[in-house]
């Protein structure tokens, strides 16, 4: 069954990007033992992606030669015209997340939908009762300011279903979001 998941990393104080929109604080943990294999296992279960324009522009700004999500249809939610990425299945939309979610479920073909970011886009899914799981990697840094993890209230409490420990103080908390009433 397709589940809509927010797989994300945040600082201890709840930010997914620093005050300038940067991720250097996070990249210093890329080489932590087990993280890459964990990510690859997660990604193997993903059949569709959603991201906001800022996340997409961040990826473009990394100067990658190949789209990192080859073979996975990706919806970019934007009200602006953005450049495409050669060889990628990217669908730009300004439509409501509720209408697009149905398309994403069909495209995922039984795999999961990954809400890549950012927090404001995920909040739109959450407000419509479409967010089902949060996979939160807690990174042992304090940023003091930045882009918040999720600027929306969720029906609660969340159900903790798994805890994964990584070296260097990283943990991942996996939660199920209760359905909206």
UniProtKB/TrEMBL annotation:
The chain crosses the membrane at residues 134-154. Residues 107-166 form the Bacterial bifunctional deaminase-reductase C-terminal domain. The keyword Cell membrane does not apply. Pfam families: RibD_C. Keywords: Membrane, Transmembrane, Transmembrane helix. It comes from the Bacteria. InterPro entries: DHFR-like_dom_sf, RibDG_C, Riboflavin_Biosynth_HTPR. This is Dihydrofolate reductase family protein. It comes from Nannocystis pusilla.
